[in-house]
Amino acid sequence: MIEKRALMVNLLLAALLVLCSLASLAFGTLTIPLSGLVQTLLGNGSAMHDFVVTELRWPRLLAGGLTGAALALAGCLMQTLARNRLATPGIIGIDNAATAFAVASVVGTGISIAPPAMALTGAAIATALAFGLSGATGTRGYRFIIAGLAIGAISGAITQVMLSSVALDDANAAYPWTVGSLNARTTGSVQALAAGLALGYPLALALNRALVTLQLPEPVTISLGIHPGRVRLAGLVLSILLTGLAVAVAGPIGLVALLAPEMARTLSRPGTVPLTAAALTGAILMVLSDLAGRLMLAPLEIPVGIVTALAGSPYLLWILLRKSPDINQ
Fold first, then answer.
1. Which segments cross the bilayer (predicted)?
2. Angle CA(229)–CA(233)–CA(239) in degrees, nearest 5?
């Protein structure tokens, strides 16, 4: 059965995403009027408008929307598995580890593996370490988060060491992976993210019922025929896949994985796991943040990772000061 509130929320978010996407295509150093944008999208625009929309703005819009959706979906999965609002890929160090491995493939450390594969490797290693260091608690409790924070700090330090020990040109090439940027993303990494999201999203939806059941006490979950260990493992694998591919496209994007699921949860019915709403909200946040970064100091561009961090930090403080970190409270 289709839950009416969820359907309405998802439709409204989808419509908002379309509007934000049109704004991203229209506004910038060169503002394209709505009529000109429509003509360009229909293939009848001027050469200048066609170049700006097709070659410059559409690729970064696609990269931003996919990255935001992937990070938000990974964050929603992680928060649900850990039953903790703070358990997101960025907080527990997956972003930093994926960034460190991606940077290592760029700065000439002798590693010739492509950044997407290296980012996935870093995300997997960080999760495995956090899971192992947290002991019997697995993905539950604060030990998992504390272990992830330590791994993230170490990964960040390793990234800075690599950047400070290579030639300036190599460091500049790796810089976007350290702050989060949608500028000049490679087609291959965006295609890999699109494929990963096309695979991960249906799999996440298939886990939805089990994820909702995980919010109940574990004995109740088991009595309903759900295997918590298998569900957590599947959710972790999906989170690793989505986070690693997103970082390979845009670098570490601050707090999208925290903000988007929280906003989606606020709009949705209590007790649900709003995977679709979280993904749509994440895409909206990324598109708007990228647009704001292009417009605020135009023609200078503020990397999208800095914009999301500035916008999301007050909200993170509000969560810490006003709400229990337990996802069920």
1. 58-78, 90-111, 117-137, 144-168, 233-259, 271-288, 300-321
2. 145
The pLDDT assigned to 329 comes to 44
DSSP state of 55: I
pLDDT digits (tens, 9 = 90+) for 178-195: 777 887 677 888 888 999
Task: Report yes or no on 306 lying in a domain.
Answer: yes
Burial of 169-180, coded b for 16+ CB within 10 Å and e otherwise, reads ebbeebebbbbb
3-state SS of 206-226 is: HCHHHHHHCCCCHHHHHHCCC
d(CA 92, CA 99): 13
Q: Rounded to an integer, what distance in angstroms lies between the CA atom of residue 41 and that of residue 319?
A: 41
Distance between CA atoms of 37 and 30, rounded to whole angstroms? 12
Q: CATH number of the domain that 198 lies in? A: 1.10.3470.10
The answer as to whether 128 is a domain residue is: yes
- CA distances (Å), origin 106, targets 152, 162, 173: 20, 10, 7
Quote the pLDDT of residue 214.
Answer: 75
39 vs 317, more confident: 39
Give the confidence band of 140 by pLDDT, cuts at 50, 70, 90.
low
Which residues 6+ apart lie within 8 Å of 82 measured at CB?
139, 140, 141, 144, 145, 327
Residue 76: pLDDT over 50: yes
- Tell whether 327 is covered by a domain: no
Q: Give this prediction's pTM.
A: 0.86
pLDDT higher than 90, residue 115: no
pLDDT at 20 over 90: yes
Give the chain's domain count.
1
CA distances from 79 to 44, 84, 211, 257 (A): 46, 5, 10, 9
pLDDT, residue 94, reads 81
Which residues, in sequence order, are CB contacts of 37 under 8 Å at separation 6+? 22, 25, 26, 45, 49, 53
